[in-house]
Design brief:
2 copies of one chain form a homodimer. Chain A contains 6 helices and 3 strands. The model of chain A has no long low-confidence stretch (mean pLDDT about 95). Chain A binds a DNA duplex through helix 4.
DNA sequence: ACGGAAGTTCAATATTATTGAACTATTGAA
DNA sequence: TTCAATAGTTCAATAATATTGAACTTCCGT
């Protein structure tokens, strides 16, 4: 037994730091995840939100960074984990920041986003 | 002789990437540098723009990151290097991003910004 | 010329990211 | 009620980055 499944930790809005938000969004994969979460405006599970060519352990790591930065809410739903943006809380603390970033962000070039014929 | 002094490289506007901008601003020291560059709206030398408690090699590294991200312009002026924000170019490529971030950014807590009595 | 000031470069160390492999937890079917 | 599949986590090993002391360069004033 290598490890038990710990519950997700979400920082309260008060402790969310701008630097952590920027750091989380500075990674192309995480930016793409957030893009997908905002486009489809319903919660997405991890494999749907993340670029599918990445190893699961890498995906999991990126979700952890997003969660600990305060950008996303994750909830276990049976065997999957559904993720949603904490967009209202963040926009209240840092008005316009995430909106401007997502507006400027181009889709990540990866197998998922290449033309599906 | 350990190394010659290379000229500064500034990426052309076309190749500036959003991720690099965010990455550069995700560091508290670099965010503070950019804050100072925009407040005083004239170019500042490195030691003035950077928190003074940091080693010079660390300061130099942070300016390099900001430069290579395309956030700042650096120019040698005699013995010093003066730095200015490439704010117009960046705002044209990524409208509102840097403005929103700087608006949300609090001054870094460091000896420089603590109350000068 | 020399000393100081401002910053760079290098190299060593420390921190952080990536990912394969083993694992947990839940579900649906036999 | 076991069983296999699905979805994701955790750990550990390795790779990539950041931090910074020390030596160096360049320019300026005297």
């Amino acid at each position: 037994m290598v490890g038990v499944q710990r519950p997700f930790l979400h920082p309260p809005a008060e402790t969310i730091r701008l630097e952590s938000i920027l750091y989380a969004l500075a990674d192309p994969v995480r930016l793409e995840i957030v893009r997908r979460l905002i486009s489809g405006d319903c919660p997405l599970n991890c494999s749907t939100a993340a670029p599918s060519h990445l190893p699961k352990s890498t995906q999991s790591h990126h979700f952890q960074v997003l969660r600990e930065a305060g950008l996303i809410q994750s909830e276990r739903r049976g065997t999957e984990v559904v993720n949603s943006l904490r967009i209202h809380e963040i926009d209240e603390k840092f008005p316009g920041v995430v909106a401007a970033i997502l507006k400027a962000a181009k889709p990540l070039k990866c197998p998922d986003t290449e033309r599906a014929n």
